[in-house]
Design goal:
With 149 residues, this protein is α+β, with helices and mostly antiparallel strands. The chain has two domains: 84 residues, no CATH class; 35 residues, no CATH class. Helix content is 49%, strand content 17%. Strands 3-2-1-4 form a four-stranded antiparallel β-sheet. Strand 1 and strand 2 form a beta hairpin. The protein is elongated.
Length: 149
């Protein structure tokens, strides 16, 4: 059985309509995932809600000014599983993150400039850094490294 949701997009930002208690005019657009999103059994029902409750009057103008795309989307079976089993997803993500931690640092300006010059077309920051760190790792292995162990 398919389910549908209302999705809001603006560049890399994606949000889904979530139902709040009380007046439906004040439904929030703050769910980055489908876990708490309002869902419909039919695309027609979701479209009708979008047009009659979300995109009406001044509220609709404000929403459309903030979001480049407001659309009804079908929720895939995998997305439905993720929304219905958040604890399983959190556990799997924690296990993955423990094996592959995210490192955060602020490179010096001269390193940033050099990285930009070295970037291949269409390469993301992660791809660029992984490529450069792979080259450095090979160099270090050949030369024995620069720190005394």
């Amino acid at each position: 059985m398919s389910l549908y949701a209302i999705r809001f997009k603006n560049e890399s930002q994606v949000r889904y309509l979530i139902e709040t208690q009380g007046n439906p005019e004040y439904n929030a657009v703050d769910s980055g995932n489908l876990e708490g999103a309002k869902k419909w059994k039919t695309e027609r029902g979701a479209r009708k809600y979008l047009e009659s409750k979300v995109l009406v009057g001044r509220q609709g103008e404000r929403i459309q000014a903030r979001w480049t795309t407001v659309e009804v989307v079908e929720i895939s079976p995998q997305q439905q599983y993720h929304a219905n089993n958040p604890e399983v997803i959190r556990t799997a993500k924690a296990k993955y993150d423990s094996k592959r931690p995210v490192l955060s640092f602020r490179p010096k300006p001269e390193i940033l400039e050099w990285l930009e010059r070295e970037r291949c077309e269409g390469e993301t920051d992660a791809e660029l850094l992984n490529r450069k760190m792979g080259k450095l790792m090979k160099l270090e292995e050949r030369s024995g490294g620069d720190c005394e162990h």
